[in-house]
Design brief:
The protein has 508 residues and is mainly beta. 3% of the residues lie in helices and 70% in strands.
């Protein structure tokens, strides 16, 4: 006879993580007629603006956008450096990594390196190398048996369990424009030309209030510009922002996490009071906020069953749950030397970039690159760049984890005879969880007793083995855990001794 069960459905999303892929793009650029011929390239910087990401029909990742490049150079027969600003478009693919059921696809793009060489005094070739990190979610639907729909006979014994898991309830996205005026110090010369601009966008808070997601973040802006007298100056400022995103359909007990992608960036001299105001810079960014909402889910299921009256044939299924989810930020101070080959007089600008975070066992390795713009002892402008690995340790026994690193803090420079010593904080956010598998009952039926089955004794005395549970013994003899406890004058399973005989009653 087929057994009837009550079932519970669980509908949610599972996060998907994929291996990063690389992309290289390049562009030839003509120097405008208003600019002098190029005598020497000093440095090249860039911003990744990733405007579109999608899955192709054959399951590949596709990312497209542009690198906003700034080439700092020394012109012939002119005083002071100049800059070329242009876009390098890209479209690249991650081969064979995207499943067709991936939803809420997102790809984060980081600039690994960018450099420029002179083809002739009026033409340059710029080459940029990118690393792209795809992620997404997959819809999951789980239906599990939780109890019997008809237990009137009282002969079916259930081993019921409950497990806590953490799942993605949904994802919300919103594009928005951020604009801010940045005043320059009136005690210095006003800005004559913007040479480069960098913007690091990060989230600081995300909360669900009512049916609204309130997110906050910080934009760290670094703008290098040339003053009217030819001197170089650097403006660095943290710009807070906030946004309200529709959060309908989520419970206030849910947790949320926001990430941001840069779509376009612009920095101009002037402000609302005047477009020619040399003591005001205006920053305009187009950003996409992506908020992932998480919720805790209790999954109750039947791990095993049997009947005290007849043999039972069970159908079993396997399910996998995410447990012990945790996130922590590990901070460590890094000290590295950038060799310049010439004596350094002063440091004008520094930049720290982080790439892939590799976690193997209890060790963490972070790919880091550093760049410095400096003046040598003859006031000649130069640039130095170096790539290196930073190692760290995770707590012993940590579950499988993934990490993301960034430099959020002051970069301290110290001029040495060999070059420039850098000291900076590195923050690595480590997300860890365990994926555990459970076997549960998905169906079953009772069968007729075999005619020649060996007759079991009505009274059994035996010890509980070290690998046995009260449930397994009760199932073996078609009795109940409650019955065993009662006849042995025990109240709970933790009191069951392993060193003395137990009386095992029969129910029939």
């Amino acid at each position: 006879m087929e057994l009837n069960f009550k079932k519970a459905g669980h509908d949610y999303y599972e996060p998907l993580h994929f291996a990063p892929f690389t992309c290289e793009t390049m562009r030839e650029t003509i120097v405008p007629d208003s600019c002098g011929d190029i005598a020497r390239i000093v440095d090249t910087t860039g911003l990744v603006c990733l405007t579109n990401c999608e899955l192709t029909g054959d399951g590949r990742f596709c990312a497209s956008g542009s690198v906003e490049a700034s080439v700092l150079y020394i012109p012939e027969k002119e005083d002071g450096p100049r800059a070329l600003h242009f876009q390098i478009p890209f479209q690249c693919y991650g081969e064979g990594q995207g499943p067709a059921d991936c939803e809420f696809l997102d790809i984060r793009g980081d600039l690994h390196s960018i450099d420029t060489r002179v083809l002739n005094p009026r033409k340059v070739l710029t080459r940029a190398s990118l690393i792209l990190y795809p992620s997404g979610c997959r819809h999951a639907s789980l239906s599990v048996c939780t109890e019997m729909s008809d237990e009137s006979e009282g002969t079916i014994q259930l081993l019921q369990e409950k497990k806590e898991t953490r799942v993605v309830a949904g994802v919300r996205e919103k594009e928005f424009t951020f604009s801010e005026e940045l005043p320059l110090s009136p005690g210095r010369g006003g800005a004559e030309e913007i040479l480069s601009a960098r913007f690091d966008v990060r989230g600081t808070d995300s909360k669900l209030i009512g049916n609204k997601l309130v997110v906050k973040g910080l934009i760290s802006a670094s703008v290098l510009y040339r003053e009217g007298g030819g001197r170089l100056a650097l403006l660095q400022q943290d710009l807070p922002f906030s946004q309200i995103i529709d959060g309908a359909g989520f419970d206030e007990e849910c947790e949320s996490e926001a990430a941001y992608r840069l779509l376009s960036a612009e920095c101009q001299i002037g402000g609302e009071s005047g477009s020619d105001d040399a003591y005001m810079l205006t920053v305009t960014l187009l950003l996409r906020a992506r908020v992932t909402v998480w919720r805790g889910e209790e999954v109750a299921f039947i791990a095993d069953l049997y009947s005290t009256a007849a043999p039972v044939s069970c159908q079993m299924m396997e399910m996998e749950l995410t447990e012990d989810a945790q996130k922590s930020t590990r901070r460590q101070n890094v000290r590295e030397l950038l060799e310049t080959g010439v004596p350094v007089k002063s440091v004008l600008d520094t930049e720290i970039g982080c790439g892939d975070v590799q976690i193997n066992g209890g060790e963490m390795k972070i790919a880091v690159w550093a760049r410095c713009l400096y003046l040598d002892e003859n006031d000649v402008l130069g640039s130095a760049r170096r790539e290196f690995m930073v190692s760290g340790e995770l707590p012993e026994g940590s579950p499988a984890a993934e990490g993301e690193a960034a430099c959020h803090g002051d970069i301290i420079t110290n001029i040495t005879p060999e070059g420039i010593e850098l000291r900076f904080p590195l923050e690595c956010t480590v997300s860890a969880s365990n994926r555990r598998r459970y076997i549960c009952v998905s169906g079953g039926e009772t069968t007729e007793e075999e005619q020649d089955r060996e007759v079991m004794p009505s009274l059994i005395l035996r010890k509980l083995g070290k690998e046995e549970t009260l449930w397994s013994v009760a199932k073996q003899y078609r009795t109940t855990c409650k019955g065993i406890l009662e006849v042995n004058d025990l109240t709970e399973e933790s009191q069951v001794p392993y060193d003395r005989l137990l009386l095992i009653p029969r129910t029939r």
